[in-house]
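Consider the following assembly input.
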Amino acid sequence: MHTDARTLENGSLIEGDICIVGAGPAGISMALEWQNTPYKVILLEGGGFEVESDVQDLYRGQSIGQRYFPLQSARLHYFGGTSGHWAGFCSTLDPIDFQKRAWVPHSGWPIQFSDLDPFYPRAQKLLELGPYEYGLNYWQKQQPGLTPLPLDEKVFWNKVWQFSPPTRFGNTYRDAILKARNIHLYTYANAVDIRADENVSQVKEISVKNLAGKTHTVRARHFVLACSAIQNARLLLASDKQAPSGLGNDHDLVGRYFMEHLEVASADLFLTSPAALRLYLWEFFTTKMRTELAITAEKQEAYKILNGTASLWPKAQDTESPAFIDTFPDSAQATVREWEEREQQFKAGKTESKPPALYKQFSLFTRMEQSPNPLSRVTLDREKDALGMPRVVLDWQLLPLEKRSIYKLYQLIGQQIGMAGIGRVRVQDWLQEENDTNWPDTLGGGWHHMGTTRMHDDPKQGVVDADCKVHGIRNLYMAGSSCFTTGGAANPTLSLVALSLRLSDHLKQKINQSA
Amino acid sequence: MKRRAFLLYSLSATVLALPVAGCLDRKPMEALAEPQVLMRLCDAPTIQKIGEAYRAKVPAESGKEALTERLLEASSGNPLPTKTDNNALHAFLSNKIKQDFEAGRIVTLLGWMLSETEARQCALFSLKSS
């Protein structure tokens, strides 16, 4: 069922059992889990079914730290959320990502890989991926000829990625959501304030607004914020009428530990003999799986570095493509349009002609996790958006550990390639000195926002507990990558959907018990 | 300089005046100034610049004699060849380069991550035209 909240009488009261705020991959994945249950699910979406500039403007904010993408276009504020412009890269977190690592400050989730593992197969289906197989052996049997580089397996392993079509949640699941009798989608319903009981131990209601000037109230037994890492933090911080520093923020943690993946072209691999290296290659809308070179857990520990990978991109000649961060549009509509055009061109068979099948040179592209850092954070600005909500200020901060980890990653790749006698590696200028902590202008992120309501058993170290419940508030949950304690080396979508499904199961158990 | 190395070196009187590739009149010891893998990956001017960068980075090895001495240092498992032909020297140096990578004796020059041995080869190469 669907209601445009602009058409409701001002001051309407919306009631249900579960209220999910945000209809992106996390929110829609959760809502779908509740189809055909006796429970009424309220799904709130701030935008409509198309990207609109005035709605996107609600996400506009300042960036005062490390150079970052425009906030109003890095996240999409409409039904389907940011799946509207993602590329479909999926891989699981690794077991080491969950562990407390002495060399990574603030690492260690309260859950382990085995706790999330059962939910990955379900997430795979929602993201229209292949079988839940992330071992190279499986794929080599399926596709003979996927030959890895001859590197020492004690140093590098081939981490498998699978590729979603990519699933545009807004298109793929729109009918299912609209047809579900017990799921009530409200578009143009921006959550702007959360109100709790007198003790601030239980959420009573959420206030929603839209640009048509309507304000409504939503009441439910359980509330789930699934609005993205930045917006989840923003909503908690802005809900400060009863808790002056914001809801769930007794220990000044909400908005802190903002993490991204450090993504940047870092080096070139030159081979003495041309090779296809098909195992490592990716083409839009075509590739089902590929691998990236990942550092083994043992070597991460030995060198006291973060988890990260290097992907290979063929280079027809020794030229550099512009960095993503230099080309990312300010306009969210432009980002969606770009993807739609790519997809249409592909379907029409009008994609650029394929480069030759053998290559002598590859660009090596880093995806490195970020060390959790309390100074890397989201705060509220004095400026308010059109709905009267304070805008966000993003202060993305990096640490020397990240730079050293990337440096070491390429030292190891260079060493391994040299040992194998198959070529040489040439690193970029900014990676030539071990103690150089400067970053290049080309450094960007993967548009992966994580960590702002991090998970930890201790309320003094995390905003949510192992069940994604906000510490101290018994019916308020966070869904999505805002709960990530560390980011790992994998793109977050698969894991955030898996984590949301885990939360959904937890809520079902809880609601059934109380019934 | 050790005796064997000296003898080998003394045979290479003209080596440093030869072009890096396409030489038909190959002389003994030419291999010392021929970083074979790099020669397949980049052009002579690049090797020249890498060599100059090494000499600037390691001034103690900025001369032909010092470089040759280091290049002809034998190691356990990789003795100096008994023959002075280029093939034998290439095999010796190739082994030496592999050992460098295994032991982490890697130097980064103009971004290129090279074994110390091949960096010295580049340095020697750079001297021929300087």
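Residues 86-103 of chain B form the longest helix (18 residues). Ask yourself how this observation constrains the way the partners meet.
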